[in-house]
Amino acid sequence: MSPRVRRIAITGIGAIAAHGSGVAAFERGLRDGRCAVRAVTIFPTEGYRTTIAAEVPSIELPAELPSPLRRRASRSAAMALIAAAEAVGGARLDAAGLAGAGVVLGTTTGGTLVGEESYRATLQGEPGRRRLSQWLETPVAASVDALARAFGAGGPRLTVATACSSGANAIGIAADWIRAGRVATALCGGTDALCRMTFSGFNSLQALDRQPCRPFDRERAGLTLGEGAAVLVLEDWQAARARGAEILAEFLGYGVSADAHHLTQPRPDGEGAAMAMRRALAEAGVTAEEIDYVNAHGTGTPQNDVTETRALKAVLGARAAAVPVSSTKSMIGHCLGAAGALEALACVLALRGGFVPPTANLVHPDPECDLDYVAGASRPARLRTVLSNSYGFGGNNTSLVLRGVE
After folding, report:
1. pLDDT digits (tens, 9 = 90+) for 349-371
2. Which residues are CB-neighbours of 224 under 8 A, at least 6 positions away?
3. How does pLDDT run across 206-232, given as a tens digit for each residue?
4. Helices 271-284 and 302-316 meet at what angle, rounded to 10?
5. Where is 238: in which H helix or E strand?
């Protein structure tokens, strides 16, 4: 990757996750170290070995959005719209500022839940008309299309599906667009809703913990699925300054790599993950010594947590034990295509709020995971430069570097 040329400002953020709707609810949950895992209610879970997830408690679309969008939006698209409305409002972007904006979101299943429900009702012979619009909301691209229509964003639009690194890659691609001069502004992030397909699939893989996930704990037994959305507004730094926007943080760079190893298991030596981190640092123009905090991929699976620990040691070197590392998935679950975006947003909040989010449910540290994983409770900290890791099935590795604004 070439060194960055244009500086990238983050001027708006929006979120919805298991802690509730809005950035304020998300930050409170992170500061409190509250695990928001609960019993799944949006579809039946009888017969599954695991029946819990980090489900969003309620979804209420903003009234100012066009009524057709509010009526037809899938759960995934609805969460993206909620997060985007908050981000756009916070950035104080008007119609002129959005007219040429790009939109890029990461997701894995799109509106699959809508299709599942319609198909179930048809199979079971339930009365009532099946609306075509329900099926039109199932493709993974539907959420990006909904955002472009809702906010009049006439720039390029793209859907990224690189498994659990999708949301992080979407942010990096948006930054690339701005640096290449394609757009001055981009809405980017990720969204994913719980659905039967992923829930049954991960249950079949026996990859889910029956308890809320316990990243880096020696008794960890798998991940916990979650759902949610996060949207960030990225802008060319000079353009943001010229319009008087408040700059929340700076996006410095990202790095990507492929394990080229296995469909579901990470490369055991962690070299693929380490390569993504090194490339992110190189593009950002910072050294490992400058990293003050790492938001880990931290799924709670036996292989991932050990592998990521090895990768962090390889990249951070002698400082590895002194750098706080935490997994916010311990509180909001693994939100798949939205995970990298929510974790990047958590990093923005940590930079601005002067705190390190904790790893909840970490009670019995694994001797093989021997870094400072911020067990139990958040802690105050002065942070300047942070790293966020996202690793997906198939060995899709992505790392982001963000910096606070003084």
Report:
1. 999 999 999 999 999 999 999 99
2. 37, 52, 53, 54, 208, 209, 212, 213, 300, 329, 333, 334
3. 999 999 999 999 999 999 999 999 999
4. 40
5. helix 237-242
The two structure tokens encoding residue 24: 């304020």
**Per the structure block, which two tokens stand in for 145?**
């299309």
| Residue 70's pLDDT band (cuts 50, 70, 90) | confident
Q: Any idea what DSSP says for residue 62?
A: -
pLDDT band, residue 2 (cuts 50/70/90): very low
Residue 365 φ/ψ, nearest 5 degrees: -55, 140
Dihedral of CA atoms 13, 16, 18, 21 in degrees, nearest 10, equals: 100
Exposure letters 58-70 (e unless 16+ CB within 10 A, then b): ebebeeebeeebb
d(CA 217, CA 362): 5
Which two three-digit tokens encode residue 61? Answer: 């679309």
261-265, Cβ contacts within 8 angstroms, sequence gap of 24 or more:
261/395, 262/395, 263/393, 263/394, 264/205, 264/207, 264/393, 265/303
- Residues with a catalytic annotation lie at 164, 297, 334
Q: What is the DSSP letter of 7?
A: -
Could you give the 3-state DSSP secondary structure of residue 254? Answer: strand
Within 13 Å of residue 139, how many CA atoms lie on the same side as its CB?
A: 10
What is the rounded distance in angstroms from the CA atom of residue 82 to the CA atom of residue 77? 9
The CA distances from residue 193 to 261, 290, 338, in Å, are 28, 35, 9
Indicate the helix (H) or strand (E) that contains 60.
none
* Domains within the chain, CATH numbers bracketed: 8-242 (3.40.47.10), 253-403 (3.40.47.10)
pTM over 0.70: yes
Share above pLDDT 90 across residues of the chain, in percent, rounded to a whole number = 83
